[in-house]
Amino acid sequence: VQLVEPGGGLVQPGGSLRLSCVASGFAFEGYVMSWYRQAPGKGLEWVSSITSGGIGSTYADAVMGRFTISRDNARNTLYLQMNSLKPEDTGVYYCEMADGRGQGTQVTVSS
């Protein structure tokens, strides 16, 4: 299992960013995929999950209405579109499936 997350960076409050997670080594289309994040000095927090076919998704209350999870099973890629970003969204973002987690990508929301 390999999960690689390019796409993090620095963004101003109110801005947008899209994260990607490129998967390999397993049948991507058969798995529920999730995003987690870890803020500085805090524990791992679940952000969102999406069903294997991409029809159903769920979100943490903290990101509901601002973040959108999606996937492209033909490209073995998971996405997280983040809008209206807040400083409290700062952290390392990880994509995860049942058998593995990516190395994470840093998202910093600051003016």
Radius of gyration: 13 Å
Mean pLDDT across all amino acids: 96
Gross morphology is globular
Tell me the series of helices and strands, N- to C-terminal.
Answer: EEEEEEEEEEE
Look at the helices and sheets and give the structural class: mainly beta
Low-confidence stretches: none
Main β-sheet, in a few words?
Answer: 7 strands, mixed
Quick tags:
single chain, 111 residues, four-stranded antiparallel beta sheet, mainly beta, globular, seven-stranded mixed beta sheet
Question: Could you characterize the architecture of this molecule?
Answer:
The structure is a single chain. The protein is mostly beta strands. The protein has strands at 2-4, 9-11, 17-24, 33-38, 44-50, 57-59, 67-72, 77-82, 91-97, 100-101, 105-109. The chain has no helices and eleven strands. Strands 2, 4, 5, 6, 9, 10 and 11 form a seven-stranded mixed beta sheet that branches. A four-stranded antiparallel beta sheet has the order 1-3-8-7, with no helix packed on it. The chain starts with a strand and ends with a strand.
